[in-house]
Amino acid sequence: MGNHQNDPDNLLKKYQQGLCTPEEKEIVEYLYIFSARSEKKTGKVIEDGPFRDEIWRKVLSVNGIKSLEKQNTISTPQIHRPALWKRISIAAALCIAVGTALFHVVKTQPKQEQVVYTKDINPGKNNATLTLPDGKIIVLSNARKGELAKEQGVVIRKTSDGQIVYEVVDRGTAGNNQINTLSTLRGQNYEVRLPDGTKVMLNAASSLKYPSSFLGALSRKVELTGEAYFEVAKDKAHPFVVYSKGQTVEVLGTHFNISAYPDDNLSKTTLLEGSVKINNQLLKPSQQFIRSSTAEQIVAVNPDEAVAWTQGYFMFNDEPLENILSRIARWYNVEIIYKNQEIKQKKFLGTITKYDQLSKTLRLLAKTKDVSFEITGNKVFVDH
Q1: In whole angstroms, how far apart are CA 296 and each of 12, 269, 291, 293, 326?
Q2: For residue 58, what are the CA distances in angstroms to 43, 72, 240, 342?
Q3: Using H for helix, E for strand and C for coil, what is the string for 131-195?
């Protein structure tokens, strides 16, 4: 890292004068972005402060990439509610890019290209299909905004921002026996506002079954396959119930995330706000209910990790590569093939935007550990 290792201020002055190498520039910007006292770029030397000094000490204490990983020096942006329904901001994306670049800076030896491809793969999109009770299928990306359909006193509309909204226009004819199904393929996600005002964001390769109206029902029942984030409208008289992969989640009004893919070994329900009862066990905020085929347990977690996907992130903390690539595979619609099975258990931490091309996403992972990727068609080969 050169002679700037002993004095951050010398490096900052070099940055002001435009004399930094690309690697030095990345470190300065990393310090700048995560400085607690710096609001915007002014051209002045970054103010002294304990936060800046802490980051600098961590940079200087690095002895190879493994040490850096152990110190958790990638900063993961917090999800600010109720802004969960907005996409990743440019500032957050810059933080991720520079934070990940720091990994590359501290390596002592340059590596060969670790992501090889002939044709890159674009990220997923906002799309889904809506299946109506009469069997009619609407591809939502192709549908124009405005009224899509009418069902027994209920109008289904597509808003200008692409959300599907249900509105009861005739309470006398609206019933709860008309089942709609919202489905996403791999590489898709979508948002719907149910007839009671509940917001649901559906992740890739998932489906949600629900009535076009909850009128006349004692409870608001829906059925989930895959993953979805819920912001449930409060209604004490009518509990909201989600059925998914052997578990039942009951709430009155709260925010939570359920991941229950058929091909995953574990189902995870994470609570952000309020309280829920799941399989007759009470879950509190920042707790996660984990269910396997043989056991159930409740653990304390950072809930932002579970819902990072709703803001356009892959967020992982000491997570096996196999789990990370499983999520990446659903979003980019690719098949993961391991040339070495042991590599599945390598653990990673960090945050990566979902909206880059696949090669860049994989390259960020490859920078942090001894792992390489080859993209061939819709297959990704993983090796040391």
Answers
A1: 52, 11, 4, 8, 22
A2: 24, 9, 46, 30
A3: ECCCCCEEECCCCCCEEEEEECCEEEEECCCCCEEEEECCCCCCCCCCEEEEECCCCEEEEEECC
**CA distances, 15 to each of 10, 27, 29, 63, 224 (Å):** 9, 10, 9, 24, 52
- Beta bridge partners of residue 180, listed in sequence order: 210
Read off the pLDDT of residues 181-204 as tens digits, 9 standing for 90 and up.
999 999 999 999 998 999 999 999
What dihedral angle (degrees, nearest 10) is formed by the CA atoms of 320, 326, 328, 333? 160
**Which positions ≥6 away from 86 have C-beta within 8 Å?**
311
Kindly state the tokens that stand for 8.
């951050």
What is the separation of C-alpha 15 from the centre of its chain, rounded to a whole number of angstroms? 34
How far apart are the C-alpha atoms of 117 and 112, rounded to whole Å?
Answer: 14
CA distance 37 to 51: 8
Owner of token pair 């359920």: 258
> What pTM did the predictor assign?
0.74
DSSP character for 111? P
pLDDT tens-digit map of 215-247: 888 999 999 999 999 999 999 899 999 999 989
